[in-house]
Write a structure and sequence with these properties.
single chain; 11 helices; nine-stranded mixed beta sheet; alpha/beta; about 375 residues; 15 strands
């Protein structure tokens, strides 16, 4: 009988992690555009072969593992030299804005299985700390690749968020959690998302993806999003921040129930530290009675109301609800609503004893602790 040897199967696809060689460049407006067609953004469907498209997208989005020269800098205009791909661009810019890459579990080396998060350089001295917990399918520092493609790298990543946090007068610290990159890729000595795992090199273009070993391909303490969020609160914050630091928490997408689930179980421990929680979601669930609901706000995407418009939804969510300014796509909540969320955090921080009152929207009445008066904003 005839049989096909593996050596006769088509080789797996390869694309360099270099925007120039992929046919793209970054404009002065921080947008990634095609060199041949400057009015066109990233094109996923370069072929009818799905594997080729997936590998090409991963190269476009990737964090290049090739060593860079000491003089390497991110280039924001068309340059014939190496141009960093999306995640490399984001990382380089964030590390230049007083953020550090912290490896989890704490004490791990680059050779050990680890998950990376961003922590601000002032985390040990700040009096207020903003913790961002995003979606479980996004790469570290990425809010929405579609926003990166359609608008700009800064708006589709946490770059704009970090910049706005650092501009606050009280100079708060910030932690960017990483609930997406939790699969340990031993061949690359790095943690990756499910999307990247599917794009990793294979023996041939028709070979199945690597199986996930639940021991070897997991990181201790961060095996899933639930463990990762718990590690941030149980280990990172107590060991890296001040004991009495005030904490503002953002939970986006499926990161929102992870935040609420953890705080529900540990509210007695964190009640004095957590002063505000903002949740971005497009589906209905409830925060129950965590913190009496007085410290929570939900930004809901499943509506077409203007940004920050008060919504009827407290009975469903258990906290006051506001429009996220995004009617369809959950991952686009944060790029549109982060300024309103930070405004809420500043309000809570500036008004002693601030509490969300049932049935009131933004700009309505809030209650000041220790008085019978209601203060209008």
């Amino acid at each position: 009988m005839f049989r096909l040897h593996e050596s006769a199967l088509p080789a797996d696809f390869y694309f360099p992690a270099d925007l120039e060689r992929l046919g793209y460049y970054i404009t002065d407006e921080d947008q990634v555009r095609s060199i041949k067609h400057p009015d066109q953004e990233f094109n996923f469907f370069i072929s009818k072969n799905e594997r080729m498209n997936v590998v090409h997208r991963e190269a476009f989005n990737s964090l290049s593992m090739e060593p860079q020269s000491p003089s390497y800098t991110v280039r924001l205009t068309h340059d014939p030299a190496h141009i960093a791909c999306v995640r490399q661009n984001i990382q380089s810019r964030l590390l230049s804005t007083k953020l550090d890459l912290t490896l989890l579990p704490l004490g791990a080396t680059a050779a050990d299985p680890h998950v990376q998060i961003y922590t601000s350089t002032n985390i040990s001295t700040c009096t207020r700390l903003v913790v961002y917990v995003g979606e479980s399918w996004q790469d570290l520092g990425v809010l929405a690749y579609r926003t990166i493609s359609q608008e700009s790298i800064a708006s589709g990543s946490v770059i704009d968020l970090v910049r706005s946090v650092q501009e606050c007068p009280d100079n708060p610290g910030i932690i960017i959690a990483n609930t997406g990159q939790l699969l340990w890729y031993r061949g690359g000595h790095r943690a990756v998302t499910q999307t990247t795992w599917a794009a990793l090199p294979r023996q041939t273009a028709v070979s199945p993806q690597m199986e996930i070993d639940e021991v070897k391909n997991r990181v201790p303490g961060c095996k899933n999003a639930t463990e990762h969020v718990a590690y941030i609160f149980d280990e990172v914050i107590p060991k890296m921040a001040m004991e009495d630091v005030k904490i503002d928490v953002i939970g986006m997408g499926d990161g929102a129930p992870e935040v609420v689930g953890y705080l529900r179980a540990k509210w007695e421990r964190w009640e004095k530290n957590v002063q505000a929680v903002a949740l971005g979601t497009g589906f209905v669930w409830t925060v129950d009675e965590v913190g009496g609901n007085a410290k929570f706000r939900a930004f809901w995407s499943d509506c077409m109301e203007p940004l920050a418009m008060p919504l009827v939804g407290r009975n469903d969510f258990g906290c006051n609800c506001y429009s996220a300014g995004e009617g369809e796509i959950l991952e686009c909540i944060m790029p549109k609503a982060y300024k309103s969320i930070l405004k809420f955090f500043r309000l809570v921080n500036d008004v002693p004893g601030y509490r969300e009152l049932a049935g009131f929207g933004e700009g309505a009445l809030v209650e000041e602790e220790g008085t019978d008066e209601e203060v209008e904003f």
